[in-house]
User: What shape does this take?
Amino acid sequence: MTPLETVQAFIRAVEAHDVDAAIALTAPSISYENVPIAPIVGHDGLRATLESFLGPAAEVDWQIGRELAVGSVVVNERLDRFRIGDGWLELPVAGFFEVDDEGKISLWRDYFDLQTYMTRFAELTGG
Amino acid sequence: MTPLETVQAFIRAVEAHDVDAAIALTAPSISYENVPIAPIVGHDGLRATLESFLGPAAEVDWQIGRELAVGSVVVNERLDRFRIGDGWLELPVAGFFEVDDEGKISLWRDYFDLQTYMTRFAELTGG
Assistant: This one.
């Protein structure tokens, strides 16, 4: 797979709630960085975080808009959609990925507005 | 200039508080999109917005990290730094730009966490 295909496969695994398949596409030393929050390093932290935001979502639909790949770097603009209860949480995201020589994602860095997520999450969960 | 050079020149103009030079590098129909906020279209809105965030800043230092250019699209990761009073406001940003056939920036879309900006701005201005 090319780096672009690896990132696309990773996102499809996330959409399918298949955390094992997603993690299999990442390096053990992956740095997973939600920019407004602290970075997470390694598979255990990645698994815990994926499970925490996939858990409440009955459906996950991450729509990829623009995507660019240059060498080992992949960038995408996404609308990350989560169905929670009766509604959808929609989060615009800019994602930066690095894919290592073994074809594994070694960096995943997402830029987004945390309050957009928090406010809508509270609306949908009555929190 | 290449699209990448155009974007670099634009950022240097912003750092120099030279709003006229910055605007001269953009298309009249530019869409300027701070993702957590409503998009702004056209030179008048761009000027007003640039002046509003450059005004309080004694120094502006936008550090470009990763940058990619594919065709007419330029993407960068930045640390946008503003000196306000005695301190620096530092905002991580992912920027997406399109440069049109006349070499003018027709899209500028920044992804960032609005609360990061607001909280630090309030700290620095005592607001």
